[in-house]
Amino acid sequence: MVKISILASEAADGLYDPPHINQIITTSFQPEQHLIPPTNPTISSILQLPYLKMFSKTFIATLLASTAVATPIVARTSNKAFKLISFAFGPNSPIQGSDIVAYNGGLWIGKNTTSYCPPNIDCPAGTETSFFYGDNKNVGMNVVVPGGQQLYIGTDYAVSYTVAHSADVHGGKAQGWEYLAPGVDANGPVGLLTYPDYGFLACASPEGPGIYSIAATPGGEGTGNCTAIQLGALEYTGDATAWQYQN
After folding, report:
1. What is the SS3 assignment for 18?
2. In which band, very low, low, confident or very high, does the pLDDT at 206 lie, cut at 50, 70 and 90?
3. Nearest to 191 by CA among 107, 32, 81, 113
């Protein structure tokens, strides 16, 4: 589980009282600015500096205009499965279009999906990560295990998923996700997964280049060690992709 801490906090409305950043250094943020990370950085040192604004939902539509059709954007509730990709801002981002996968309880870029299959069970391969959107605005992991697993934003701001057979999100936010499904609207083949008033970040890991943990903070506040992203959604038409994802 990724642990993310904030320097200053204040009460916020919602399912829990998360830390809210209210002390930030006023520095201009350039979307493609990647600052040199500190020596042996940790996620707890990442979310301290400038404000990273959550960009408009229409931004994807603009960049994908070549594949879009001339129809209005319509938000549709769908229980169809989808995969997540990183939609970074700027054509030269090293994580543009990267797969976002389930890894040991959280969402990551640059890792391999971790899954579990019980003995003597004919399980899916478990090498891919997919999700589905529920009618109560929750996001489920596309798994076989009874009771399922669901996606949530932790009190540490890590985008995480529950253990199998449990709905315990440890005080985090599991309901309230908004999903613009891929399809015949201005977004073309790419949909969008959002959470109101939160922005998503891909934060460089000290484990090595190309590895990023996915976080979500109010307004998308973070540091130059994090890149502002949107969670692009691609339709997935296959069966469940794992028995369960490993925590």
Report:
1. coil
2. very high
3. 81
Query: What's the predicted TM-score (pTM) here?
Result: 0.69
Tokens coding 108: 């990551």
Residues 96-143: tens digit of each pLDDT: 999 999 999 999 999 999 999 999 999 999 999 999 999 899 999 999
**Nearest Cα to Cα of residue 53 among 232, 181, 217:** 217
Q: Is 237 exposed, middle or buried (0-12, 13-18, 19+ CB in 10 A)?
A: exposed
Nearest alpha carbon to residue 113 among 132, 130, 127? 127
**DSSP assignment of 41-110, as one string?**
--GGGTTTS-B-PPPPTHHHHHHTGGG--SS---------EEEEEEEESSTT-TTTT-EEEEETTEEEES
CATH of the domain spanning 50-245 = 2.80.10
